[in-house]
Amino acid sequence: VQPHTLLRQHLDYGHWYDRVKLSQKEITKVQFASCMNPTAGSFTINQRLQRHFNVFAISFPTQDALNTIYNSILKQHLRSLEGGGVPASVNKLAPIVVQSVLNLHQRVCSCFLPTAIKFHYVFNLRDLSNVFQGLLFATKDALKSSTDFVRFALHECRRVYKDKLIDTKDLATYDRLELEITGKSFDKGGENQEVLPRDLDMEGVMTQPLVYCHFAQSLGDPQYMPVSSWDALNKTLKEALDAYNEMNAVMNLVLFEDAMNHICRINRILESPRGNALLIGVGGSGKQSLARLAASIANLEVFQIQLKKGYGIPELKVELAQLYMKTGVRGSGTVFLMTDAQVSDEKFLVLINDLLASGEIPDIFAEDEIEEVINNIRPEVKSVGILDTKENCWK
């Protein structure tokens, strides 16, 4: 039986049949919401099923709509910083920064198309939102001039777009696109020359290293600031490594330039709301070690599943339930670190996908455990002024 036939049976009659007990099961209080991808999969749907749905076609927002959305977000953030001494030139530059990010996004989407090898070259609104999410890390100390603002925006674009690229040719193409759009948007001889602030210095914009992180000043001062030099970053990371080695199994890491870059990238993701990363590299290249160090810098614990003989879906659910209790009920900041070797069953990825997509994994808790979670979380729900219903506590 095709799945859509079962759906249609419920929509038409409100019940299914139990094929073992040969009894009718009434299904109540259920609503169906579905979606179709306009670029992949099947483009047809059974008309007898479709007639039950209200159909909405949602297209990609226009440039004007995107401009309005992200200008509003960025200007509101800059307005909140105005009392802290952000110069007027930074506010003046905001619309040009938004437009240049949108232009770069368009060029990246058209230049880097997905292939069988580069199947992850998919750029959409989520990437745009990630760029502006990064821009919201900005503090008054990081935006002392319009030059700082442009450097900040360039860095966030590199973290979102450039970090996805996998070969030197694509990286060089991205650098060319970035240079071209930066020149058009911010060069004194470019298309915005009449409205550019006087303190904008293009040589300063391109100064290296262009790396921002939450430990640029020091480990005890978590401000998102630019790194002054590789030597200064190396010194800070050596301190972090020494502190890690005092509390955990010793890691002997060589902190060369690429390794330091990777730590900054991982740490930025861990500091972002709902941040998650897929680290790709050959075995033994230091992915786990750098992730552990980045987590330590962010004051996060590391959680890993423990594989043993006969380990399957039930055991994974038990460990994930423990992780949820640790993070959700006790509020302990934690990094869930999982390697490809720990995926002993491909069905594990279904649970991981649920965790990443919505955070809700079906049947992870028994009924008595759900009541325990709700009772533990109820005081916190009340403290923020939300009605402490079962649904609110669970969400």
Please indicate the percent range of residues in DSSP E strands (runs of 2 or more): under 5%
Mean pLDDT: 88
Helical content stands at: 40-55%
Q: Could you tell me how far the N terminus lies from the C terminus, measured between alpha carbons in angstroms?
A: 35 Å
Global structural class? mainly alpha
Shape: globular
Question: Which consecutive residue ranges, at least 5 long each, have pLDDT under 50?
Answer: none
Radius of gyration: 25 Å
Beta strands, count: 6
* Biggest pleated sheet: 2 strands, antiparallel
Query: What is the overall number of helices?
Result: 15
Tell me the strand order in the biggest sheet.
1-2
The secondary-structure element order is HEEHHHHHHHEEHHHEHEHHH
Offer a concise description of the structure.
By secondary structure, the protein is mostly helical. The protein has 15 helices and 6 strands.
Output the keywords.
395 residues, two-stranded antiparallel sheet, 51% helix
Please characterize this protein's 3D structure.
- The protein has 395 residues and is mainly alpha-helical.
- It has helices at residues 3-13, 47-50, 63-81, 88-111, 125-135, 146-160, 168-186, 202-205, 230-247, 257-271, 287-297, 313-329, 348-357, 367-383, 390-394, and strands spanning 15-18, 23-26, 212-213, 225-226, 301-303, 334-336.
- The longest helix has 24 residues, at 88-111.
- The two termini are 35 Å apart.
